[in-house]
Amino acid sequence: MLEPSEPAARLSVNVDHVATLRQARRATYPDPVAAAAMAEDAGAQGITVHLRADRRHIQEADVEQLRERITGKLNLEIAATPEMLAVAERVRPHQVTLVPERADEITTEGGLDLRRQVRRIADALIRLERAGIATSLFLDPEPAMLDELRELGPLQGFEINTDRYTRARGEAVARELAKIASTAERGAAAGLRVYAGHGLTCDNVGAVARLPEVEELNIGHSIVSRAVLVGLAAAVSEMLAAIRAGRSPGPLRG
Hints:
By secondary structure, the chain is α/β, with parallel strands linked by helices. The protein contains ten helices and eight strands.
């Protein structure tokens, strides 16, 4: 049983946008590796980064240094391409989350389309398993989509895309949350680890953190944005407090 002072879900801080700020001037600062260390010192249990084909923020050198320097779990988000799989095999993060990727998108816009990419994803999962890397897939909250996972082979878990929930208003909020809850419950019943993330803030994370099946939340943009105003340690602490509040039986924020 969790102690009252511990959040129900672990927090993995995505430091991509620390690198975004650095790359805006092609400078050496701010350093996402240093930011990751600060996030861990503030209580984060993991670090997430997305190495994109266009290298718009995180660079391979960042991933290599993170693997050497952080003490918690390193979750590397990549597309299921030969180039990215080769990087993962070389660096060996604790976990790889396969995500869809388009060059013209501002950020990841949806979950993987398993029906169209089943062979490519299955082959990627086999390669990652052989390298001793835990695997996860970024999926939209569609419970029926989990039926497709039986065709994929080795898989430890999946991350639920919470974007539609975070954008919903009015009665749509409850509907989107119900989809997340149903997907989480069905995934956990199938023996998979359940994670969640995308667009989560201190104001909306509580309802997702309250779901018992969700064991890890991957959050970046809102934390880094808040850090500009109050500092990274304070921003991480605020998010951890919001996650704890979501776990408690009292009323949720937002």
